[in-house]
Here is the input.
Amino acid sequence: MVEQQEASEDAVMTRIGQAIMLLHGGDREEARNRFGALWTELGADGDALHRCTLAHYMADTQDDPGDELAWDLRALTAAEGAGDGRSAEHRHLPAVRAFYPSLHLNLAADYLKLQRPDSARIHLQRARAAAESLADDGYGGGVRAAIDRLELRLRGQ
Here is the structure.
């Protein structure tokens, strides 16, 4: 039973990864369609890591800044739900926590696009605080550099 569940979860992450590849390849519409179908399949009680990852990337497929914000908020809500005590969610907690700097960075960028600089600053501070736990590798350095760039943009406001 556990092996079937793990195989099923791997299949979901594979499907999310395929949609991410479409997104990065420039096919935002098809990526959005696939993410939407997966979101419906996962439902409100789906795995937090899956919901967080999917919503995080679904935000990038949106044309409207308000829709992008809504998906980024869903991603944050899913991440926050990972620590709610359900045993299946607990094993994904470290992976979900690694998303926090990027989640808050995206929210800061969303709020900046929506001309809400105070909200942007709040999430930028949260992104910087969460980034302290990132490894000093390419990913961590890239997130920190993106935080610095957004902070410069905010100062120019």
Q: What stands out?
A: Residues 10 and 16 are 10 Å apart (CA to CA).
